Amino acid sequence: MEAVRLTGVMGARVDGIDVRTLDDEGLAELRALVCEHEVLVVSGQALTPYEQVEFSHRLGPAADSPFIEPSADHPEVIRVLKEAKDGNAFNFGGAWHSDFSFQPSPPSFTVLHAIDLPPWGGDTCFSSMTAAWDALPAQQKEDLLAYRGVHTARDAYSPRMQAVHSGLSGMNIVCDESAHDVTLHPLVRVHPETGRTVLFYNRAYVRDLVGPPDDEKKRLMEWLHLHTTDARFGYRHRWSPGDLVIWDNRSTQHYALNDYAGFRRELHRTTVAGETPIPA
Ligand code: OGA
Ligand code: MN
Description:
- This protein has helices at residues 24-37, 49-59, 129-134, 138-145, 154-157, 162-165, 214-228; strands at residues 3-5, 12-14, 39-42, 78-82, 109-116, 124-128, 148-152, 182-186, 188-190, 197-199, 206-210, 234-237, 244-248, 252-256, 265-272, 278-279.
- With 280 residues, it is of the alpha+beta class.
- The mean pLDDT is 98.
């Protein structure tokens, strides 16, 4: 399998394969490429929702997806959809995040398949949390190793956020009180497949820290956001029809741009269950 790197820090692209016909060896190769490059673009796929689910299952069992009603086509598929008439409504994934990091065992991989794209815009930005970690000075690494992130969906999916999500006529996002649940994860984790060290932070769901002095927490979290989303750690994907993008949710953040008001954008998402983060 020939993978072409997309930046100096993250992202690779594979052309000329059909994920439906990969044998076990090919699948293992693909999985290793996702872990190594953190985002893998596989071009030219034509998967039905059922075929996408079958492919995802080969990476691992489906993850639990709270708050988001699945597609009528398949209970394990989320239709990431903004209709043309939704205009400037807040888009799904429209803030820097790592998928469902508030869960005790957050997803390992997310698979997103481009179905219907606007004529321009709707790119997805990714950022490497291994590159963000590697760039830190030794003293700061030592401090961060002792901290934990307080993950919660409360500022995304608690009932007061319902109106924000109801602007998407083609998605059914149902906020509820369970969004207030809190999970502690190490701020610095070890990737279970590559052994690399990862700064496991995202502003959407990490809403507090355990470890730093109280009067430094806010500033540190704001700094972590700015640092981890710096352009030098990132790759911005411009979608083409048929793209299947697989990202490692344990070592990246991502952000869906919302610059295509008046046009329709539909992608199909499947999400693979992950493990409890291992502290570094
Ligand atoms: C997601 C997500 C990004 C996009 O599906 O988890 O954040 O570009 N989507 O639609
Ligand atoms: Mn997402």
